[in-house]
Amino acid sequence: MAAPTFCIGVPTYKRADDLQRFIVAIKSQLLRKPNVRLVIVNDASHDDAYQRLVEQHDGLFEYRVMPQNAGPAMARQEAFSGAEEDFLVMTDDDCIPGPDWLDYLEAIIAADPDIDVIAGQVEPVWHSKPSVCATSMAARSNYPGPVVSDHGLLTAVGANAAFRRTLFEQIGGYERALNVAAEDCCLTQRAIRAGGRYLVAWNWLIGHKAETSLREIAKRAFNYGFGSVQYTLLEQDWVLAEMCSDGTFAGGLKTIRRKVKAQWAECRELGQSWVMTLGFTAISVLKSVQFERGWNAGLRKFSKAYECDLPQQPDMAKVAVNFSDERVQQHALGV
């Protein structure tokens, strides 16, 4: 059987130096894999640094420039426009793929040729020795890895994911109406609802530039909360709604407490020192509070815009699964 073909889509915005590291890291894999095509889309931030980078790596990748800033999801959509490859692979310009990144992906698909969605893991990478404070920001929960609920995969994040191209096209790709920070969740859930078989590949790893700014962590957490509300109301996703608060002060405190306790428990389970446990937990408090602030801001805005409230858990009798259905059995094998 012929090896699957891949189109890797990488959005970039004002990060030519990070993109250079990404290209250097993946170059050897591209040169030995004729079945892989790399498309880099500049989200309307082209400058001389990018031009020098394109000239330096002439012919290694396709380079496109967006006419105006549209966010990473729309930049990826542009990267995949016209693609004919079997799988569309998502990652970011500040990621660092290891030397076997694509080999591992090929092995996953070889083991299960019918898989449609592969959600990979992300780990922090430093370009110099980190301080204790910087290390405290590097809890795995600070990085965009797969989000899993009691009901299965919630989000395959764009930093490390692969979707079968035909399924991506069937569901229409990314949702243009969504603000930043919710597109990956929407894409993943639409793919699963369309019958896509998924795998959470915890061992399919990619490095991600380590976060060293508390301000950026807080900003990102707020945006995640804000965008999550928009997605929840647009798609009426009760699973995501039940993982977040009801918008009340008491509900917010309960949600924050649950997240912080989970971070503390993870640190103790991994045998972290008390210093690192306290550091990780402090960052978790910051993120949880900021997410809640964004969630509440989103509720105020989008509840009015969409004229609806948070979805409630449906009557389970109406969503019962018929496990005698052969299609259900086949789908379960891919989970």
Characterization of this structure:
With 335 residues, the chain is an alpha/beta fold. Helix content is 47%, strand content 17%. The strands form two sheets. The chain has an eight-stranded mixed beta sheet. The chain contains twelve helices and ten strands. The protein is globular. Helix 8 packs parallel to helix 11 and helix 10 runs antiparallel to helix 11. The protein has two domains: 6-212, Alpha-Beta Complex (Spore Coat Polysaccharide Biosynthesis Protein SpsA, Chain A); 235-318, no CATH class. The mean pLDDT is 87.
Give the low-confidence spans.
none
| CATH-assigned fold name of the largest domain | Spore Coat Polysaccharide Biosynthesis Protein SpsA, Chain A
Number of helices: 12
CATH fourth-tier homologous superfamily of the largest domain: Spore Coat Polysaccharide Biosynthesis Protein SpsA, Chain A
**Secondary structure category:** alpha/beta
Can I get a quick summary?
The chain is α/β, with parallel strands linked by helices and 335 residues long.
Layout of strands and helices, then pairs:
Blueprint: E1 6-12, H1 16-31, E2 36-42, H2 48-56, E3 62-65, H3 72-80, E4 87-91, E5 95-96, H4 101-111, E6 117-125, H5 132-136, E7 147-149, E8 152-155, E9 160-164, H6 165-170, H7 183-193, E10 198-209, H8 214-235, H9 238-243, H10 249-269, H11 274-306, H12 326-333
